[in-house]
Automatic annotation (TrEMBL):
CDD domains: Beta4Glucosyltransferase
Keyword list, A-Z: Transferase
UniProt entry tagged with the keyword Transferase: yes
Name of the protein described by the UniProt record: Glycosyl transferase
UniProt keyword Transferase present: yes
Glycosyltransferase 2-like domain: residues covered: 5-122
Source domain of life: Bacteria
Length: 369
């Protein structure tokens, strides 16, 4: 059976650290915690779980801190987490089984990372990440901000999920780091351009975000999932600015990099629905339902775009066409995923009447994506 070192870098994580460590203490054989300057009770909490609590001077570089934490590990494999990550009991059991069965020749294991949930407990955002890596493979972290682990060799994908439960987020921390890099005259690689644009967008600086997203795409470099994501975020920026034709072009640009993804099909559906071009809207919502995203997809995935959302929007389309039987069928399909949604329940009641009577349509009851 393999042994596992947990490596964490922390700073002022007193609100989440104990929860994280309690959730994984049964599955790891060593805990390494690297503190980058906490002023709260983080170190005190960490010391309750391990005697390997080390300090590392913060240099506006996440990779340096993570690489330092990896250097302190002594077990066969390294599991890395953030302080606001947790594993539930089911995934703890899966991890313990993985420890028994994993071949020592495997260099890295990918796990689902659940980033968000809707109000009904459905996963609203997930991504694959290599979370468990063989220590002797010597993998390094790259990038001062939004760092990534440079993994190669024999890799596997597991059915283990890690849940992100953030309780706080500094909107300007990463933006400040990038602006400092610019001020120092440091060259931005393609990946830097993409993440800098993300930070600008998150802070509402849409014109500059658009500039850097386009600059990133024009390099023709970088990870394909970042390119697809950049198209989505470009569309977001144009939507916020009310420039809907440019939003439309950004959506279509994503098709350069891969077959249409459900997210973009739903966005096209909404684009046409807003213009009351119902035939086109219906086409794209049906495509979204029929598409399947590979379980190996390592990019960001929101299951809503291939489940309840296109069905709900098809309900709107067919209601406007006064095809109430079809509208009802799609509302029922959406209800399978969100059985307690007040809007869907309202639609159910309304459409049960409309199938038998000629009443005014739902009109603008629904909001889009």
């Amino acid at each position: 059976m393999i042994t596992v070192s947990l490596c964490l870098i922390v700073k002022n994580e007193e609100s989440t650290l104990q929860r994280c460590l309690n959730s994984i203490k049964e599955i790891v054989d060593e805990i390494v915690i690297v503190d980058t300057g906490s002023t709260d009770k983080t170190i005190e909490i960490a010391a309750q779980f391990t005697n390997k609590v080390l300090e590392f001077p913060w240099e506006d570089d996440f990779s340096k801190a993570r690489n330092f934490s990896f250097q302190q590990a002594t077990k066969d494999y390294i599991l890395w987490l953030d302080a606001d990550d947790v594993l539930n009991e089911k995934d703890v059991e899966k991890f313990l089984e993985l420890k028994k069965t994993l071949s020592s020749q495997v260099d890295a294991v990918a796990m689902d990372y659940y980033l968000d949930f809707d109000e009904y407990g459905n996963v609203a955002g997930k991504i694959k990440k290599y979370r468990l890596v063989r220590r002797m493979a010597g993998f390094k972290w790259i990038g001062a901000v939004h760092e990534y682990l440079d993994v190669e060799g024999k890799v596997e994908s597991s059915n283990i999920s890690i849940i992100h439960k953030s309780e706080r987020h500094s909107k300007d921390r990463n933006l400040r780091i990038y602006k400092n890099k610019l001020a120092r005259g440091e060259a931005f690689e393609a990946r830097d351009l993409y993440y800098f644009a993300n930070e600008l967008k998150e802070n509402g600086t849409y014109d500059k975000a658009i500039f850097y997203y386009n600059k990133f795409l024009n390099t023709e470099e970088g990870w394909i999932e970042d390119k697809i994501s950049a198209c989505s975020k470009l569309a977001d920026c144009y939507f916020e600015k009310g420039e809907h034709e440019k939003e439309y072009i950004a959506i279509l640009t994503s098709f350069i990099y891969d077959i249409p993804r459900p997210e973009f099909c739903c966005r096209l559906g909404y684009y046409f629905l807003e213009r009351n071009e119902l035939r086109n809207a219906i086409y794209w919502y049906y495509v979204a339902i029929q598409l399947e995203i590979s379980t190996e997809c390592s990019g960001f995935v929101n299951p809503a775009f291939s489940t309840w959302l296109p069905h709900l929007q098809l309900c709107v389309c067919y209601d406007r066409l006064q095809q109430y039987d079809l509208a009802y069928q799609h509302n029922e399909s959406a209800r399978k995923f969100r059985p307690e949604d007040p809007q869907i329940l309202h639609n159910k009641q309304y459409l049960e009447v409309m199938k038998n009577r000629n009443l005014p349509s739902l009109g603008e009851t629904y909001v889009g994506i």
